[in-house]
Amino acid sequence: MIRIENVSLRHGSAEILHDISLTIPKGGITALIGPNGAGKSSLLSLIARLQPLQSGTISIDGFPVDTTPNRDLARIIAILRQDSIVASRLRVRELVGFSRFPHSRGRLTAEDRVVIDQSLQQFDLADLADRFIDTLSGGQRQRALVAMAFAQATDYLLLDEPLNNLDMYFARDLMRSLRRIADENGKTVVIVLHDINQAGAYADRIIAMKAGRIAADGSPAELLRPEILQAIFGFRMEVADMGGTPVVLHFR
Amino acid sequence: MSTAAVKQSPLTGWIAGLVLAILFVLSLFTGVDELPFGRVLSDGRGIELVLVSRLPRTLAAILAGASLAIAGLIMQTLARNRYVEPSTAGTAQSAELGILLVTLLWPAANLLTKGLIASAAALIGTSLFLATAHRLPPTQPFLVPLFGLVYGGVIGAAVTFVAWQADLLQYLSIWTNGDFSGVLRGRYELLWLGALMVVFAWFIADRLTIMTLGRDASIGLGIDYRRMLQLGLVIVSVISALSVVIVGVIPFVGLVVPNIVSRLMGDNLRGTLPAVAASGAVLVLGCDILGRLIRHPYEVPVGTVMGCVGGLIFLWLLFRRPSDV
Ligand SMILES: Nc1ncnc2c1ncn2[C@@H]1O[C@H](COP(=O)(O)OP(=O)(O)O)[C@@H](O)[C@H]1O
Ligand SMILES: [Mg+2]
């Protein structure tokens, strides 16, 4: 369980997050949505201890993120940042392999290799495994980064806009993979999505943020309604029902 | 991580190792005094010459070359920029300032003391460089080496000014232009400390590679990013300072060698570190031998030879795009 209590964040005079309290139970997919600048990435990076907590507390499975040793947390939680850039010339397999560092500290075990291979298979990277990252397309690189986060094999997975650069095939593929690890392995996924229809189709719960606050929180059916979406995004959109799945016609 | 890199490292590594062995032998028989192969064993004076001068000189070139190439590699890892190296970003200049101050304030200090104080000065200078470099916008990668040049230039100017004031200018060139001709038994052994740093770097190679992925990715993988930065800084500073104290500044090794190896083998340091070290040794020893041959029986200092050779290699690197696999 991720427990967030009274978390606020300021950069200079700007208040980025206002007194956020939130509990994300273990298991399932939670989607974070909201306009640009709402504070989604900031919240994720606080949970993943990438920036120091200014006020409030965050704990994961009871471990406070600000006092638990970094390497212990690395076995519990993995994060893929929104704007990850890999400037080093590493092969895909090497990059994915480094995600095992928290477990084996550099000496790959047989189990590590199995996990790495599975992750490469899962994201259709087996053919690209020996290519250097800097020779891949944007979408292939994004898949390699997602595969890396997967192979870290933590109970909690934080993904900040992982669908960026992915084509429809791989976007759907990634969401189905997330659904599978949530259902079969009991993983907890927190994912920032801009495509609210992906959120509607795959998430168990949607949390909408706006201007540093939580604007709405509920199941897809509760949340994807014209009036709520208008309050969050500032324009009116129709919502259709496709056999139980709400589909937001945000493009019209 | 020792998966793919190890598979293709033998080739580059072995070639560099073989060339190094050939140069090693060549270096023992190249110099002002004629020393034909046959005379080494038959003539006591020949053995003496090898043990007192030629072997120390050869080892010094190998140690300095290998460790400077590694220092450059680590500096590039810490700065997350491929175009910085200790001799152009204030590390070497800070070390010079340190030695100059010891020479002024405590002329009787031994080499070890000088080396330690130079290392401390290099550490301070490099930390300041890195703190600033990390604040520069990552979207403009050439700002970092540019800032390094200016920063190193300012410290270098301070060094010259102090030396001029203290009437020590003639000493200065001992440190600012690398030269192995003065290396004798008993005067170079501190360079083994640099080799120790290389071994240490090999132990933390995985962590260093992860650091090239950036601060957030490193923390996400459970690495103590700040401590690793500090460790890296110590390695870079000690290696650079020791080689400045013992032989003087040798430019470009730390810049061109890691870049060439990266293009050939990638950036997985566990696999590339040995090749970087071996290639650095080849380049420096090769340039030193060249310096002994060009105007035989006179010598051209290795710093000068490397300035030309390294500069040319660097230009070639800039104009030739990396080959894709
Ligand atoms: N390092 C920073 N310094 C100042 N402001 C920042 C910094 N990081 C983020 N912000 C601001 O915080 C707000 C929230 O950003 P972010 O969490 O990235 O939003 P989102 O991911 O929802 O688009 C934005 O207004 C952004 O400008
Ligand atoms: Mg964001």
Structure description:
- The complex is a heterodimer of chains A (252) and B (325).
- By secondary structure, chain A is of the alpha/beta class.
- Chain A is 35% helix and 28% strand.
- A six-stranded mixed beta sheet of chain A has the order 6-7-8-3-9-10, sandwiched between helices. In chain A, strands 2-1-4-5 form a four-stranded antiparallel beta sheet, covered by helices on one side. A two-stranded antiparallel ribbon of chain A has the order 11-12.
- In chain A, helix 3 (92-98) runs parallel beside helix 6.
- Chain A is globular.
- Chain B is globular and about 65 Å long.
- The relative contact order of chain B is 0.18.
- Bound molecules: adenosine-5'-diphosphate (ADP) and magnesium ion.
- Adenosine-5'-diphosphate binds at residues 11, 14, 16, 34, 36-42 of chain A.
List the helices and strands and how they pair.
The complex is a heterodimer of chains A (252) and B (325).
Chain A: E1 2-11, E2 14-24, E3 28-33, H1 40-47, E4 55-60, E5 63-64, H2 70-73, E6 77-80, H3 92-98, H4 101-104, H5 110-122, H6 138-151, E7 156-160, H7 168-185, E8 188-192, H8 196-202, E9 205-210, E10 213-218, H9 220-223, H10 226-233, E11 238-242, E12 245-249
Chain B: H1 4-28, H2 39-42, H3 44-79, H4 91-105, H5 111-133, H6 143-165, H7 169-176, H8 191-203, H9 205-211, H10 215-220, H11 225-246, H12 253-265, H13 269-294, H14 302-319
Helix pairs in contact in B: 1-13, 3-8, 3-11, 3-12, 3-13, 4-5, 4-6, 4-11, 5-11, 8-11, 8-13, 12-13, 12-14, 13-14
Bound molecules: adenosine-5'-diphosphate and magnesium ion (MG).
β-strand percent of chain A reads 25-35%
CATH class of one domain in chain A reads Alpha Beta
Mean pLDDT of chain B: 88
Structural class of chain A: alpha/beta
Q: Work out the helicity level of chain A.
A: 25-40%
Number of domains of chain B: 1
Mean pLDDT of chain A: 93
Classification by helices and strands of chain B: mainly alpha
Distance between the termini of chain B: 20 Å
What's the CATH topology name of chain B? ABC transporter involved in vitamin B12 uptake, BtuC
Query: Based on DSSP secondary structure assignment, what is the total number of beta strands of chain B?
Result: 0
N→C terminal distance of chain A: 38 Å
Summarize the helix and strand pattern of chain A as letters.
EEEHEEHEHHHHEHEHEEHHEE
Backbone shape of chain A: globular
Helix count of chain A?
A: 10
CATH superfamily of one domain in chain A: P-loop containing nucleotide triphosphate hydrolases
Q: Order of helices and strands of chain B, N to C?
A: HHHHHHHHHHHHHH
Report the oligomer: heterodimer
